[in-house]
Amino acid sequence: MCRRPDGGRVTVLADRRLRLRLRLSGPSRSLRFLPPTSFVLDLGIVVGAVLVAAEGRETFGIFPSPANVADSLGTAGPLVVLGWILTLLVAGCYSPNLFGAGTDEYKRVFNGSMVAAALVGVGCFFADYPLSRGFYFLAFAIGVPALLVGRYAVRTALHQARRRGTLLHRVLIAGSPAHIDEIAAVFRRERWLGYRVVGALTPAHYLEEETRSGIPVLGNSDDITSVVLESGADIVFIAGGALASASQMRRLAWDLEHERVQLVVAPSVTDVSGERIRVRPVGGLPLMHIDPPRATDASRWGKRLFDMVGSAGLIVAFSPLFLLAALQIKLHDRGPVLFRQVRVGHDGREFPCLKFRTMVVDAEQRLKDLHAQQGYEGGLFKMKDDPRVTRPGRWLRRLSLDELPQLFNVLRGEMSLVGPRPPLPLEVALYEGDTVRRLRVRPGMTGLWQVSGRSDLSWSEAVRLDLYYVDNWSMMQDLSILAKTFGAVFGSRGAY
To answer: What is the pTM of this model?
Structure first.
């Protein structure tokens, strides 16, 4: 039980802990099968790559040799498989904490495979072993990409399972109630992470049974070890206000060193990409260095050159669609093909944003009536089954083809291929606080808002994603967003 400093009142938590343990026992323990499952999958991929390489050497005639090397492959093949798998094992590719998020898993698989390739090449050189060059090349040229694809498939299946509520980690969060709710909100939002918060541990002076977001308080921060063991938690997050000194953290690590429990320190840092964070131990003190926001980098010549080349190429590629859409719009009601709307761009500069017209000609005049009907109070206005949308406009919007003319905005430097959604002047006039940072970069045809739900997102969530993009811009992130855009567009998720 846990004693509270309120005149001797005792709160009994044993029954709640027991029910919690019985209800949640099982699912997260299945996570223990991830490392062996990945091992078996990697072994199958490596064996398959070696077999294909042995056959493909003769079929494709890569690095042909007059010598008969079939016998040497019979000996070298199993040794390559064994050495490759052992190298992946030594590289930590099957660590239980590796799966589910981040790029470290892919980096270890790739680096481990490269080390294996180097060891095989160097070993054959010093041993003067006649290993077929064609076999060597094909084995790693096929095997490395296949291993990465296999890991991606496992991660995709894991994320889908977590969104369905299985294969979850049981999590306790220790800290002040405000910090606990903040971390729990991230876990609820990013369900693919697989963190199910089962309880909270708060300072002794906090007397409530639940935090404001409804997380049950299972005890005091001083009781972390006992509550963890009784609740069967997999992970303990230590947030701000949990521990009074570094010695308490050290003792907690000692208490849990023989348990299957991860200890994670959650600093008061959110929406910062891993590229901006560096941890440097100094005198036994791990110091977290956070690089400045990257909004300035997103406005430099490299991104601009990428936008110019990309938009010009896409205009040429989509020219048949331009012609088809223009004909359908013109033939429908004889109105103008393009719709020009004033939007706010980089540093607050206004520009005419181009779109294929998808609404009736007097759509702007009908907007006030729709605002009144829908109870519009500010922010982005979108509604399903908008009566102003024309018949050609429905399929153009569903596939986001109405936005293709914005490629000319990109070419002119008013927009970017990737960036925050271009806002209306009315929206900008209502911006409060940090929202104005969305204007630090050129608005984009697509962005995190586009690939994360589009119109299904709330206004606050769309702003959060845009601010994350502005502060953490990178060219790799742009390429990733462009790749995901095709799935979001063709899946028609949140488009109306």
So the answer is: 0.70
Query: Does 7 score more than 50 pLDDT?
Result: no
> Residue 342 is inside which H or E element, if any?
strand 338-344
Give the per-residue pLDDT at 1: 39
DSSP string, 219-280: EEGGGHHHHHHHHT-SEEEE-TTS-SSHHHHHHHHHHTTTSS-EEEE--S--S--GGGEEEE
Scanning the structure block, which residue is given the tokens 């223009």?
326
Token pair of 185, please? 């909100």
Place 148 in a pLDDT band, splitting at 50, 70 and 90. very high
Residue 367 CA to residue 383 CA, distance in Å, equals 11
| Residue/partner pairs of 157-163 with CB below 8 Å, 24 or more apart | 158/34, 158/99, 158/100, 158/194, 159/100, 159/192, 162/100, 162/191, 162/192, 162/193, 162/194, 163/191, 163/192
Contacts 24+ apart (CB under 8 A), 381-386: 382/455, 382/496, 383/496, 384/496, 385/496, 386/359, 386/496
CA distances from 304 to 157, 167, 399, 415, 444 (A): 37, 43, 26, 10, 12
Q: State pLDDT tens for residues 447-488.
A: 888 787 655 677 788 888 899 999 988 888 898 898 888 766
Domain residue ranges in the chain: 2-24+165-290, 30-163, 298-490
- What's CA 413's distance to the chain center, in Å? 29
Spell 267-279 as b/e; 16+ CB within 10 A means b: eeeeebeeebeee
76-110 per-position pLDDT tens digit:
888 899 999 999 999 999 998 888 887 889 999 99
CATH class of 2-24+165-290: alpha beta
